[in-house]
Amino acid sequence: MNQLGVITRQFSCSSAVQSAIKNVTVIGGGLMGSGIAQVAAQAGQNVTLVDVNGDILAKAQKSIGNNLGRVAKKMYKDNPQEGEKFVSEAMGRIKTATDPVSGSQTADLVVEAIVENIDIKHQLFQKLDQVAPDHTIFASNTSSLSVNEIGAVVKRKDKFGGLHFFNPVPVMRLLEVVRGAETSETTYRSMMDWGKALGKTCITCKDTPGFVVNRLLVPYIAEAIRLFERGDASAKDIDIAMKLGAGYPMGPLELADYVGLDTNKFILDGWHKKYPDQQLFKPIPLLNKLVSEGKLGVKTGEGFYKYEKK
């Protein structure tokens, strides 16, 4: 992947987006939320990054500053002063808040990037629906929950949709724009144009489990785990087969370790609960065993493979 090509992409906004979305509130200061805040600020938008934990906000600001510094070194390697100006201006567009309600009162767009728990998301959007301006668009960055179900608690269902970014947000070019059952054409167009203004390649998907990428990726990883569980092939050979036979940059079990086995289990469990007759979503005993043992992949040092902790 050509990171330089991604980060130096032109952030050209259409006049429609510039007039419609100028103030963006991102709720959740973790990896996804801070990444979304960064690319929005780079694109010239005013950003409010919200998290109830002040320490997480401080960490996010530091991370964004470091990331912007790396971007500036590549974009302005022959003009350090312009690089410093780029970082300063982008950071100046980001403010923080610990209260989602006050942080959303002037927003044109609110992007939620909090824990994948539908009850907590419901509580948040119910509060925001009462205080955000009537024109404000609500979007969830969920990767596995139903956009329609998340938005069921708000009155402005025509202004609700999904904006699914990929990690790391400043580098990954794809943005899945998810249309809910009642998402209006105007809202959909605004979300598409906003994503393009951030330099993303936007695709459209209906509210189907996992949207496009995870709907294909999670069952693929699950089938690879089942293949290994049955003893049909070793983990190493399964990964080599898909890298050399299908041209994939990573094998499915390597990818499972990278994503986190707990994350894979969480998504599968959620889908199985909702669609119990779908064979692809059935629980996998080996995956459950590894997670119960705390072997979650790269982040814990062991999953399907062992890793040296740095």
From TrEMBL:
3-hydroxyacyl-CoA dehydrogenase NAD binding domain mapped to chain residues: 23-208
Domain 3-hydroxyacyl-CoA dehydrogenase C-terminal per the UniProt entry, residue ranges: 210-307
Superkingdom per UniProt: Eukaryota
Record InterPro entries: 3-OHacyl-CoA_DH, 3-OHacyl-CoA_DH_CS, 3-OHacyl-CoA_DH_NAD-bd, 3HC_DH_C, 6-PGluconate_DH-like_C_sf, 6PGD_dom2, Mito_3-hydroxyacyl-CoA_DH, NAD(P)-bd_dom_sf
Subcellular location field: Mitochondrion matrix
Family note: Belongs to the 3-hydroxyacyl-CoA dehydrogenase family.
EC main group: oxidoreductase
Pathway where this protein functions: Lipid metabolism; fatty acid beta-oxidation
Residue(s) at site: Important for catalytic activity: 164
One GO location term (cellular component): mitochondrial matrix
Catalytic activity: (3S)-3-hydroxybutanoyl-CoA + NAD(+) = acetoacetyl-CoA + NADH + H(+); (3S)-hydroxydecanoyl-CoA + NAD(+) = 3-oxodecanoyl-CoA + NADH + H(+); a (3S)-3-hydroxyacyl-CoA + NAD(+) = a 3-oxoacyl-CoA + NADH + H(+); (3S)-hydroxyhexadecanoyl-CoA + NAD(+) = 3-oxohexadecanoyl-CoA + NADH + H(+)
MF terms in GO: (3S)-3-hydroxyacyl-CoA dehydrogenase (NAD+) activity; NAD+ binding
SUPFAM superfamilies, per database record: 6-phosphogluconate dehydrogenase C-terminal domain-like (SSF48179), NAD(P)-binding Rossmann-fold domains (SSF51735)
Pfam family, one: 3HCDH_N
Gene Ontology biological process: cell differentiation; fatty acid beta-oxidation; spermatogenesis
Entry function: Mitochondrial fatty acid beta-oxidation enzyme that catalyzes the third step of the beta-oxidation cycle for medium and short-chain 3-hydroxy fatty acyl-CoAs (C4 to C10). Plays a role in the control of insulin secretion by inhibiting the activation of glutamate dehydrogenase 1 (GLUD1), an enzyme that has an important role in regulating amino acid-induced insulin secretion. Plays a role in the maintenance of normal spermatogenesis through the reduction of fatty acid accumulation in the testes.
Quaternary context: Homodimer. Interacts with GLUD1; this interaction inhibits the activation of glutamate dehydrogenase 1 (GLUD1).
Binding locations of NAD(+): 28-33, 51, 116, 121, 143, 167, 299
EC number assigned by the record: 1.1.1.35
Protein known as: Hydroxyacyl-coenzyme A dehydrogenase, mitochondrial
Record keywords: Acetylation, Differentiation, Fatty acid metabolism, Hydroxylation, Lipid metabolism, Mitochondrion, NAD, Oxidoreductase, Spermatogenesis, Transit peptide
